[in-house]
Amino acid sequence: MTNYLIALLLGVFFGLSLNKAGLTRYNKIVNVFRFTDLAVLKFMMTALVVAMSGLYALRGMGWITFPNIPATYIAGNLIGGLIFGVGMALTGF
Amino acid sequence: MNWLTKQFRKELWSPYAAGVLLGVIGVLAVWMSDSLLGASGAFENLAGMFGKALAPALFDNLYFNFIMPPGITWGVVLLLGVFFGGMFGAWSSNTLKLRFNDDAQWRTIFGAQNWKRWLAAFAGAIILEYGAGIAGGCTSGLAISGGMLLAPAAFIFIGAMFASGILTALLVYKKRF
To answer: Are residues B66 and B109 in the same domain?
Structure first.
């Protein structure tokens, strides 16, 4: 139960960050692929850098253990990514 | 405090500020729940749940039995939170309203008809969800959550996603690119 409450709370802030970064808008998503607005990339990369440093620092201090790392299967990741990009540029969500 | 409230209520934050928030949430998700943020997986959990109830034989396969177990998972609850969080964000900047097709850029390029926007969103979302299923995650579940654990899969996915996204945008926009 507690775990679900945590999920709900984190989800609220996740949604908030997406909304405030403008990722809920068609033009923001599609314009990153047209190189006219790089907000999506800035948002993604900032999140990555912050989370990476945080996680590795916490693991270094022995406070957390990593969950299952998403599996790497090159063909699947690559083909999936290619299909995904088409959908993303079409919907803009 | 007033300054902070004013910054918070802005319609758009600096993408860097929003990115820091998401990064912190990503860390907290691992720390507090030992889970990764994700969005596309939740739809598959839900689809599996309904599918198993409506057409058990069709959904009795490897994918829905083992890879994406159906049910109300952590990710489904997270997604529910995302919905309310997005609403909260829009409410805080007084931009909360029911929108069907009011994106200025879409309207100038493809016209004002709602059905075009909906068709593109529906078809595109199917393609997107299939891609996410094959790759093992979406932008949040694989690119960000996998990337923050330095999973090679995430970086392959990001590269492929941008490559085909740019190509699709090029085809859709043609001279207006």
So the answer is: no
pLDDT by residue, tens only, chain A of 93 residues: 788 999 999 999 999 999 999 888 888 888 999 988 899 999 999 999 999 999 999 999 999 888 888 888 888 899 999 999 999 988 877
Cα–Cα dist B89/B95, whole Å = 9
Which segments of B32-113 does DSSP mark as H helices, in order?
40-54, 56-59, 62, 74-92, 104-110
Give domain limits for chain A. 2-91
Look up the domain containing B67 and give its range. Answer: 1-97
Domain match, B84 and B133 both: no
In a mutational test of the A interface, the residue from B97, B99, B127 whose CB has the highest number of chain A CBs within 10 Å is B127
Residues within 8 A of A (CB atoms), B 107-146 only? 120-121, 123-146
Rg (CA), chain B: 19
The residues in B 63-102 lying below 8 A from A, measured between CB atoms, are 74-75, 77-90
- Nearest chain A residue to B76 by CA: give it: A7
Among A24, A61, A88, A93, most B C-beta atoms within 10 A, so best to mutate, is A88
